[in-house]
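[job 0412] stage=fold_complex status=start
inputs:
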Amino acid sequence: AQSVTQLDSQVPVFEEAPVELRCNYSSSVSVYLFWYVQYPNQGLQLLLKYLSGSTLVESINGFEAEFNKSQTSFHLRKPSVHISDTAEYFCAVSYINDMRFGAGTRLTVKP
Amino acid sequence: DTEVTQTPKHLVMGMTNKKSLKCEQHMGHRAMYWYKQKAKKPPELMFVYSYEKLSINESVPSRFSPECPNSSLLNLHLHALQPEDSALYLCASSQPRGDTQYFGPGTRLTVL
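[job 0412] stage=fold_complex status=done
writing structure:
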């Protein structure tokens, strides 16, 4: 079975600073990788995904993630964060219909 | 349209009540999911329906009973729940071979 480890439970950062949220996965088969964001009292919103092709994937709001097969990682980065990026971020791995989430990283952006 | 809707938004029920959660999508997806999310925890997969057939049941207690009446609807019937079942219940849908799951806003369930 596949699994995900998010290495940081909380990441505090100042506004306009860069940020990296780390994610490592384990799987014996080829999987899809995702980052979801969850704002308080809401469902999960897809941030970006890696299915195949280019290992660098980008979202419309400035986040990007790079799939690294040799290091089994899918870290999320943003060069300059905003207050509105404060949320819980989940890395997920999916094989066919079975999606497993990491424990989540709480990103807090401070003014 | 990438919207998954869930009703009700909030539900409070006693341990002897019977209630149902509803989920609907109109994206033509043929896989639908129920997740349970406790506070400050990731979503945990409960059930997966693929082509209206139950394909994954993650050993969920029988007091939770899923139903997929058609390709757009997914229900979760609740009976004799325990206080520890209080959580956010999330529904999602996707194409059957995996790929992106789209989540609804969830139903916040409180069991008294």
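[job 0412] summary: Chain B has a mean pLDDT of 93.
[job 0412] exit 0
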